[in-house]
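pasting for the record
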Amino acid sequence: IVKAALKEGAKPILNSAIANAPVGHEPKGGKRLKDTIKSKVLKQKGGTFGHRIVTGTRKQLGIKDTAKGYYPAHLELGTRKMAAKPYLRPAMDANRSEALRIITAEIRNGILKATRL
């Protein structure tokens, strides 16, 4: 129930991160970053769950193994030579309340459904 609720609650954050991800800053341009942003539910020790919005791997993003840095992080946080163009944190900040509302409703509905005989 919790895993499903977290996945559903992450959708507004995920959609916002994808919509706001900068395009054209990647190796060879394009929109690989947008295409590789995913939602991931994490099961942790002790039976607790967490959730993470992740960007693609170096391979998925077309970043050479020998390249220094990781451009999704450079975009989010900036560098000495480039101003930040955040897309992950603003997505979380703008959608936190909606995500919590969805998670709460999904857990409530899941418990009610599971307890009906």
